[in-house]
Design goal:
By secondary structure, the protein is of the alpha/beta class. It has helices spanning 27-34, 92-104, 114-121, 127-138, 142-152, 155-179, 190-208, 211-219, 233-241, 284-299, 315-325, 345-348, 366-376, 392-413, 418-436, 442-450; strands at residues 5-8, 15-23, 35-37, 52-57, 63-72, 83-90, 108-109, 221-226, 259-265, 268-274, 302-308, 330-335, 355-357. Helix 6 (155-179) packs antiparallel against helix 7. The longest helix has 25 residues, at 155-179.
Length: 456
C-alpha cells in the first residue's frame, strides 16, 4: 500500500472552491505532475506554503482548470510529512480528473481521518486535539465551536498533563527509593504521598465534573417533548427545527413512534424527541409508541411539557404532568396561545415554576422559551479556554484513573507498603495516558479516526 495519500478536502458536490490534499513521500513531485505554474518557479522548488498560480492537469496532461498550489515539507506541515495542496474550482468533474491524475502518480485514496491520524502518529497532535478536529467540523453552536477550538489548541491536554506530570514525579520518587536504597534519596513520607494523591484525585474529580457540559455541547441536550395527543407536540417540533419534520393532523395518535431532530434554542443544542401522545392506546403499534415515549422522557435531561391552553386539563394531561415533574429540568408550555384560553397559567405556576405560553402555529413565545432554556442550561465560559471531557472514551479512562488513585489512597491509609501503592499509581498513569495518546492503543485510535470525513 502506498504511503502517499490523496483526497478531496471539500464536501461532495459543486462549489466555488475545491481542494485536493496529498501527504507522504513524493507529495510535491506528484502535485507538480498535476499542476503547471504560470511563472518560472516550479512547485517542487517553491518555498513552503508559497501559493503559486497555474493550470490543473488531468492524467494525460491536458488543462482542466486554473488554480493555486503550495507545498509544506516535513516536519512543518499538518501531518508532519511532506504535503501538497491544490486549490481549484469546486467542479466534481475537475476534482475527479485531478484525483485520477494524482493516483497515476502513485498516490492512493486516503482513508477517513487518515491525514489527522498521521498528524497524531507524527506527534503534531495528541488524541484530545485530534478529537477536537472532528468536534470542530461537527459543531452546531458558537459555544461548541469555541470549545473545540480551545481543545485543538491544547486546553484539555494541558489540564490532563498537569495531573499526569504530578503522578510521574511521585512514581519516579517511588522507583528511585526502591531501586537505589543505598543512595541518599529522601525517604517516603506518608504526608507527601497523601498530598500528591489528594491533588491528583481532586484534579480527576474536577475533570469528570465537566463531562455533562462537554457532552451537551457536542452531542446536544437530550430533550423530550411530552403531552397528550393533539396538544401540539409535533407542531412544536416542526416550529423548533424550521421544517415539517413530523406529520401533523387533527387525528389523535398520528405520532405513533418517537421522532428525533436537532435544534438550537437559546444558544443550547437540543436533541429533540417528539413522543407519541400519552394515553391508553388502542392497538399494539400505538402501545409500543407510548412505551417508547415514557422511556424517552425518563432518559431526558429536559422535558418540554405541552398542554393545550384552549382546552381544560384531562386525565391524560395529568399523566404527562406527573411524568414531566420527575425530569432533571422541565418547562411547561401552554400551547395554542393564539386561541381562546381555557387554562389559567397562574394556576399551573405552583406545579411548574418554568412556565411559558406559546403558539406552535404562529411561533409566538418561542423566543421566551429560548431564554428559559438558556437560563436553565447556561453556556458558561464560551471563550474556548474551558477544558471539558466530551466523549465516553475520555470519561471512561479518567474514571479508571480515579478508581486507581482511590485504591492507592485507601492503601496508604491502611499502611500498605510503597511498592504496592506504586502499581496503583502506574495504573492511573496508564489510564490518563489513554486520554491524550501518551499510552497508545491501536484499537482506540482506529475507532477515533473512523468518525472523520475523508480528506481530514
Amino acid at each position: 500500500m502506498s504511503d502517499l495519500i490523496a483526497a478531496a478536502a471539500t464536501p461532495p458536490g459543486a462549489g466555488g472552491v475545491g481542494i485536493l490534499r496529498l501527504s507522504g513521500p513524493g507529495a510535491a513531485r506528484a502535485a507538480a505532475a498535476v499542476f503547471h505554474p504560470a511563472g518560472s518557479l516550479a512547485l517542487t522548488e517553491a518555498p513552503d506554503r508559497q501559493l503559486l498560480y497555474g493550470s490543473v492537469l488531468d492524467r494525460q496532461g491536458a488543462v482542466i482548470d486554473t488554480g493555486l498550489a503550495f507545498v509544506s515539507r516535513a516536519p512543518h506541515s499538518y501531518t508532519g510529512e511532506d504535503t501538497a495542496e491544490l486549490q481549484c474550482h469546486g467542479s466534481p468533474m475537475v476534482l475527479s480528473l485531478a484525483l485520477e491524475a494524482l493516483y497515476a502518480q502513485g498516490a492512493r485514496q486516503a482513508l477517513p481521518g487518515e491525514f489527522t491520524k498521521r498528524a497524531f502518529l507524527n506527534g503534531k497532535l495528541d488524541l484530545t486535539q485530534a478529537e477536537a478536529v472532528i468536534d470542530l467540523i461537527d459543531a452546531e453552536t458558537p459555544a461548541a465551536a469555541r470549545q473545540a477550538a480551545g481543545r485543538l489548541e491544547g486546553a484539555l491536554s494541558r489540564r490532563i498533563s498537569a495531573i499526569y506530570d504530578g503522578l510521574v514525579d511521585l512514581s519516579a520518587h517511588f522507583h528511585a527509593v526502591l531501586d537505589y536504597p543505598d543512595e541518599d534519596i529522601d525517604p517516603f513520607r506518608a504526608e507527601t504521598i497523601s498530598a500528591a494523591l489528594t491533588t491528583a484525585l481532586e484534579g480527576v474529580s474536577a475533570l469528570l465534573a465537566t463531562y455533562d457540559r462537554g457532552r451537551q455541547l457536542t452531542a446536544g441536550l437530550p430533550t423530550a417533548i411530552v403531552g397528550r395527543p393533539n396538544a401540539g407536540k409535533s407542531s412544536l417540533l416542526n416550529a423548533l427545527v424550521g421544517y415539517d419534520r413530523a406529520i401533523v393532523t387533527q387525528l389523535p395518535g398520528t405520532t405513533r413512534d418517537t421522532i428525533e431532530a436537532r435544534a438550537t434554542l437559546g444558544g443550547v443544542l437540543l436533541n429533540l424527541t417528539d413522543t407519541a401522545g400519552l394515553r391508553d392506546a388502542g392497538d399494539e403499534a400505538e402501545q409500543l409508541g407510548v412505551a417508547r415515549s415514557r422511556a424517552a422522557a425518563r432518559e431526558a435531561q429536559l422535558i418540554l411539557l405541552v398542554l393545550d391552553g384552549s382546552a381544560p386539563l384531562t386525565p391524560e394531561d395529568r399523566e404527562a404532568m406527573d411524568l414531566a415533574k420527575v425530569a432533571p429540568a422541565c418547562i411547561c408550555l401552554v400551547n395554542k396561545s393564539d386561541l381562546p384560553q381555557a387554562l389559567d397559567p397562574e394556576a399551573l405556576a405552583g406545579e411548574f415554576p418554568h412556565l411559558c405560553p406559546v403558539s406552535a402555529k404562529t411561533q409566538a413565545g418561542l423566543e421566551e422559551l429560548g431564554a428559559r432554556i438558556a437560563a436553565l442550561f447556561p453556556q458558561g465560559d464560551t471563550s474556548g479556554g474551558e477544558a471539558l471531557l466530551t466523549n465516553a472514551r475520555q470519561v471512561d479512562a479518567v474514571r479508571r484513573a480515579e478508581a486507581d488513585l482511590l485504591q492507592a489512597w485507601v492503601g496508604l491509609e491502611a499502611g500498605m507498603p510503597p511498592d504496592l501503592l506504586l502499581s496503583d499509581v502506574e495504573a492511573a498513569l496508564q489510564a490518563l495516558g489513554e486520554v491524550t495518546g501518551t499510552t497508545l492503543r491501536e484499537d482506540i485510535t482506529s475507532r477515533i479516526f473512523q468518525r472523520f470525513c475523508v480528506g481530514k
